[in-house]
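Appendix B. Extra example for self-study. Work through it before the problem class; the solution is given directly after the inputs so you can check yourself.
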Amino acid sequence: MALAVSHLVGGYSQIPVLKDISFDVQPGELVGLIGLNGAGKSTTINHIIGLLTPMKGSIKLNGVTLASDPQQYKQQLAYIPETPILYEELTLKEHLEMTMLAYGLDQTAAWKRAHELLTIFRLDNKLDWFPANFSKGMKQKVMIVCAFLTNAKLFIIDEPFLGLDPLAVHDLLHLIETVKKQGASVLMSTHVLDTAEKFCDRFVLLHAGEIQTQGTFDEIKAHYPDAGDSLNDIYLTLTGVTRDE
Amino acid sequence: MNELYRQRRQRHLRQMLHYLRLVFNDHFVIALMFFVGGLGLAYSNWLKTVSPRDTWIILVVGLILWLGLAIGRIATLLEPADTVFLLPREHDLHAYLVHAWHYSWWLAQAVQVIVVGLTVPILMLVDQLSGVSLLALLVTQLALKDSELTVRVTRLYRLPQAPARWLGMANAGLALVILALSLLVSPWLGAVLALILAGGQRWWHNQVWPHTVVAWQADIKSEANRMLGIYRFFNLFTDVPMVQGSVKRRKYLDWLLRWLPRDQTHAFGYLFTRGMLRGTEFSGLVTRLTVIGAILLYFIGHGWLAIGLDVIFIYLIGFQLLPFYKRYDNIVFTHIYPLAAPLKFKNFQRLLTVILSTTGIIFLIAVWLSNAPLAQVGILLVVNAIEIYLLVAWYAKMRLA
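Solution. Structure tokens for the complete assembly:
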């Protein structure tokens, strides 16, 4: 079991946003974290990457918690934020080097990998530029390259599809496919449900800080036979947000 | 409109006061006392070397007075939204601008009095000017500044192309001529001419403004520039949210980075050094204070004053660099890198040591160049080493770790 979240209660202040959440992500699996704005997706992610401390429950990455061995825990984790976050003073090349240094990667091997990724995302001629001045989509590509540079066992990807061009979305999905084959796990939050439906192995549906349901698409569909045929329909039915038409 | 300017001026003054309180904190007042004292000492020492035969100094004084006229602008306090909200009341805006004019007039003239006051010792020494002549010179300077400010107000309006281009230059040219006459021929002649110029500009202003429109875009832009200048000044001493440090590539500094170790334990050092060299905010602070300090030390050089100054400048740089430690805290990755917690602080201490040592060495060189006895350079070396050690190992740790 790569990521195991069990009975997590947490949030930003005294009032918990997440109420007793349990799910896991197996090696080689892509799990979609689905929910409306404010459902608790980002809070869940912030707990997993260690920005927030659980009030109750535990988060284990291959048996390690953040408290028991922070370095070992963080070493296994790569994160792609929803809004690209860049160092204003570093060039693209230096962003990659910074990542290599921070994760203690072997420079030669890492640069080989970096050049592959840069070529895929057509950034290979921009090494000496400041990514802070890039467009949103290009900034997001920098985030993707930095994350996939690491040998992480768990990739956390927060809403990757908005802002990327269709070619980049395709390349990202391909990349996810590759790391899955190498045994890594991916947890991805998204609102783009039809893409999620096609590519995710399992889903965790969050609503108002609780897990509404989880499982493969077929499991969920079998469980709620009347809810509709697409993830979109099922999700809207389950959250009770059915509008009069 | 009267009420509007009053409100804005009050808000403006409150804001300035807020920043002034931050600027004139305890440390700064001490440094400022040394600074002014040092400058005063240098000035009086220099005056001793001036002989009454050095008449060329009169020309320098004239030039200083003339350049001094440029100090002081009109604080219109116009805001970008005014183009939308005040546009319908454009004619009434003159009353608003007159208020701005009066407020700016007193400030600007106070500065002129100081400028003239500073040149008085030279003039008395070289030109043997009498008290009454000095008064005439003061009247000249104030009247010239008055004309200059009137020009600035007139230019808030959209003028025909020719006057728009020549008005400022013509007035400055006339001011130069009048100052020359005043210093070389007769102060009274200068005063009379300056008063005529000031009256003429005011007359012309009243002729022009009712028949033209306010140059909104230009006025708002120049007001924004004026405020930016003020904020930049405050930003030398404290954090001003309106001034964002910018980033420059500075490729010519890359050779400095080659010396640094590159491994996992120095990842934060990698980030800190690049941020320090390329961001303008902190590197500007270090450079400015180092240059000012070195110049002061070069002129003062000897004795306890120099040692005190040296200690204060290194402290000023050191404690103002501390916020840089948190520069990247809002970047989530700095929290999720698999790096041991103490590494960040260790890397920062290293950077602080390098910067302060460089400044310390530059100060030592400045003192040495000023022909101070070698023993004093030695004392300073020891003092600097102790101070930097205390700042980095103890003070920074207490404040940050």
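Self-check: The two ends of chain A are 44 Å apart (CA to CA). If your reasoning did not lead you there, revisit section 3.
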